[in-house]
């Protein structure tokens, strides 16, 4: 029975089946051969040094920005993640944030619950049709967002490190995309390569009618610059599922009526989390049976 180390609590529907075929360790040690971590969990060098016989890290999530890939490659540690199975749910949440921010749905709900309807109608909001969505990172989730927003009548443009063979307009500069976009939608990976990609300059290019949507990672957006841009009216609003220091969310964002905030629920459905758990188990089973990994990162 190979030993697995779980540095943070994970859902019982993932852990209980794993415990039938593995010894679950509460502390890092030389007996541990596999580790399971949630997406975005920071795997430090010092933790890895306490796991000298680690063979595989299985990330319960698609984003593996917390895993030091170069170090894992050096040590021959395999890394797996859970792509595809969560794509549609996350794209749904991005679409919901576009609708909530443009149609002011959270405010409208508060309005009726506060009993304000009897004193007058809710103020007008903005339509989606005819607007442009600029997608930062047209990957699996970015494409699923584009598909949904096309159905809502938006034009799609995108920015990434390279142009793709797709029917959408490519912008080779992020500020260029922001200028074009009514909604700038962040769907690229987190990590050092994208830290604060969305900065004051990009927000200024998005402009006073623009809305920022982030379903990627909090680290991609400079939150201080975002708060300033919202306060001064440099952008109109934001829809955020992720934050720089989750679960801590700055009071300025919590208190702002221009912002719709969600507690990182992109993939948080029973169906998707079960599918992610299955993929974690399938990857570990493949590794320990010396078979090719189902969804390898490296
Ligand atoms: P993916 O298929 O790998 O797509 C990522 C896209 O980002 C690629 O098209 C890539 O295109 C682009 N990209 C990479 N580096 C970039 C950079 N420096 N600047 C601009 N674009 C860049 O990944 P995915 O499955 O769509 O997932 C995307 C991210 O969503 C994950 O990494 C994760 O952090 C986040 N996520 C969030 C939730 C949530 O609950 N909110 C759930 C799941 C995933 P190029 O290579 O052409 O640049």
Secondary structure blueprint with pairings:
Elements lengths: L2 E3 L6 H10 L1 E3 L6 E7 L6 H5 L6 E5 L8 H7 L2 E3 L6 H16 L2 H9 L18 E5 L3 H12 L3 E5 L9 E2 L3 H7 L2 E4 L13 H7 L4 E4 L8 H10 L4 E4 L10 H5 L3 E3 L8 H19 L10
Parallel strand pairs: 1-2, 1-3, 3-4, 4-5, 6-7, 6-9, 7-8, 9-10, 10-11, 11-12
Helix pairs in contact: 1-11, 4-6, 7-8
Question: Can you give me a brief rundown of this structure?
Answer:
The protein has 298 residues and is of the alpha/beta class.
What characteristics describe this protein?
298 residues, alpha/beta, 7-stranded parallel β-sheet, 5-stranded parallel β-sheet, elongated, binds NADP nicotinamide-adenine-dinucleotide phosphate
Protein described:
- This protein is α/β, with parallel strands linked by helices.
- Helix content is 36%, strand content 16%.
- The protein has helices at residues 12-21, 45-49, 69-75, 87-102, 105-113, 140-151, 174-180, 200-206, 223-232, 251-255, 270-288; strands at residues 3-5, 23-25, 32-38, 56-60, 78-80, 132-136, 155-159, 169-170, 183-186, 211-214, 237-240, 259-261.
- A seven-stranded parallel β-sheet has the order 8-7-6-9-10-11-12, with helices on both faces. A five-stranded parallel β-sheet has the order 2-1-3-4-5, sandwiched between helices.
- Helix 8 (200-206) links the parallel strand 9 and strand 10.
- The mean pLDDT is 98.
- The site of NADP nicotinamide-adenine-dinucleotide phosphate has 30 residues, from helix 6.
């Amino acid at each position: 029975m190979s030993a697995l180390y779980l540095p943070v609590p994970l859902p019982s529907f993932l852990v209980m089946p794993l415990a039938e075929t593995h010894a679950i360790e509460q502390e890092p040690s030389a007996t541990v051969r596999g580790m399971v971590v949630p997406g975005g969990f920071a795997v430090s060098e010092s933790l890895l040094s306490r796991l000298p016989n680690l063979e595989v890290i299985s990330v319960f999530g698609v984003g593996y920005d917390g895993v030091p890939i170069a170090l894992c490659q050096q040590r021959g540690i395999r890394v797996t993640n859970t792509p595809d199975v969560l794509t549609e749910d996350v794209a749904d949440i991005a679409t919901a944030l576009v609708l909530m921010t443009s149609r002011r749905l959270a405010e409208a709900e508060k309005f009726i619950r506060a009993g304000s309807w009897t004193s007058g109608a809710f103020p007008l909001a903005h339509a989606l049709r005819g607007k442009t969505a600029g997608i930062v990172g047209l990957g699996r989730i970015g494409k699923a967002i584009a598909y949904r927003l096309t159905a809502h009548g938006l034009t799609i443009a995108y920015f990434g490190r390279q142009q793709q063979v797709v029917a959408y307009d490519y912008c080779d500069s992020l500020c260029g995309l922001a200028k074009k976009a009514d909604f700038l939608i962040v769907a690229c990976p987190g990590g050092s390569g994208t830290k604060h990609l969305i900065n004051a300059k990009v927000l200024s290019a998005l402009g006073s009618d623009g809305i920022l949507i982030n379903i990627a990672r909090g680290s991609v957006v400079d939150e201080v610059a975002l708060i300033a841009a919202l306060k001064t009216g440099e952008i109109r609003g934001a829809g955020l599922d992720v934050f720089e220091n989750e679960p801590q969310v700055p009071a300025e964002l919590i208190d702002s009526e221009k912002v719709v905030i969600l507690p990182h629920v992109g993939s948080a459905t029973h169906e998707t989390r079960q599918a992610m758990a299955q993929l974690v188990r399938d990857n570990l089973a493949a590794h320990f049976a010396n078979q090719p990994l189902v969804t390898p990162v490296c």
